[in-house]
């Protein structure tokens, strides 16, 4: 199956362009705002509906700043040491979910202190909203033609043109110069969109539909995302500048997901003995 080449820019007007990836971010934030407002109006939020805008603003700053800093720190630190300004060149790409998560947690801590809300109560509220943004972001990765999986013989494997992707074909796959197309590859972005977006959203939305002991919804999010990401990383090619960290299979994404799994289990087990409200 040939990958349908998308134009990364939805609209271009002179030097200005509206890119699909940026639009996916906006759609994710807009959907989180709408869902958050709906839940707040239903009394399922630790803050008033009119404060959801502040929550989304804080969250957006955390995602963007934390995602960029996390990518440089976790995936491209050596390059930053030689070229510190690469941190500011966001148009070259490079965002890390785990960095974005840390950024959002810092932002929520600041908001919780400002609003005098318990931190875990706030993270329990935002946890079911996050998978919507994850889904949108992974669709943006697919449109951009990035973050591909390894070779596969499965019928949905996709072949990509090598000419616009020298790093993928020459560095990651080790193909001969002049090769026209890659072998069929796992569309790992779509795997992640399904697991981290659709399925995780369904689990969290169902789990949080009734009152739970504080921390349990956050724990389920951390556990669910960590497990799903760890699984997909087995078929997703690592960044060429890092490769595998150990055992010819351990990736940075898996390493960063292990603390999420551990913390998620801790929050679920810690909260389990406490009586749930009815």
Residue-averaged pLDDT, rounded?
Answer: 90
Largest sheet: 2 strands, antiparallel
* Parts with pLDDT < 50 across at least 5 consecutive residues: none
Question: For the largest beta sheet, what order do the strands appear in spatially?
Answer: 1-2
**H and E order:** EEHHHHHHHHHH
Give the helix tally: 10
Portion of residues in helices? Answer: 55-70%
- Radius of gyration, taken over Cα atoms and rounded to an integer in Å: 20 Å
Shape: globular
Calculate the terminal CA-CA distance, rounded to whole Å: 51 Å
* Total strand segments: 2
Strand content: under 5%
Could you say how many structural domains there are in total? Answer: 2
Structural class category: mainly alpha
């Amino acid at each position: 199956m040939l990958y349908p080449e998308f134009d990364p820019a939805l609209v271009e007007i002179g030097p200005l362009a509206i890119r699909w990836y940026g639009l996916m971010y906006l759609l994710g934030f807009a959907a989180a705002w709408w869902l958050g407002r709906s839940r707040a109006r239903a009394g399922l939020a630790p803050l008033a509906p009119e404060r959801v805008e502040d929550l989304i603003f804080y969250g957006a700053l955390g995602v963007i700043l934390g995602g960029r800093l996390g990518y440089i720190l976790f995936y491209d630190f050596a390059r930053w040491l030689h070229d510190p300004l690469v941190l500011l060149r966001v148009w070259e790409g490079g965002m890390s979910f785990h960095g974005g998560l840390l950024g959002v947690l810092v932002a929520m801590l600041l908001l919780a202190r400002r609003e005098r809300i318990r931190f875990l109560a706030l993270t329990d509220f935002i946890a079911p909203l996050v998978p919507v943004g994850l889904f949108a972001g992974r669709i943006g990765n697919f449109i951009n033609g990035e973050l591909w999986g390894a070779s596969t013989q499965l019928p949905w494997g996709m072949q990509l043109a090598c000419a616009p992707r020298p790093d993928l074909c020459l560095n990651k796959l080790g193909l001969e110069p002049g090769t026209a197309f890659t072998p069929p590859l796992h569309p790992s972005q779509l795997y992640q969109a399904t697991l981290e977006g659709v399925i995780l959203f369904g689990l969290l939305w169902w789990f949080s539909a009734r009152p739970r002991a504080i921390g349990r919804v956050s724990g389920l999010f951390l556990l669910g995302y960590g497990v799903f990401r760890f699984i997909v990383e087995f078929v997703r090619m690592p960044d060429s500048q890092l490769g595998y960290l150990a055992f010819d299979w351990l990736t940075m994404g898996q390493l960063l997901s292990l603390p999420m799994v551990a913390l998620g289990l801790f929050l679920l087990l810690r909260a389990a003995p406490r009586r749930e409200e009815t």
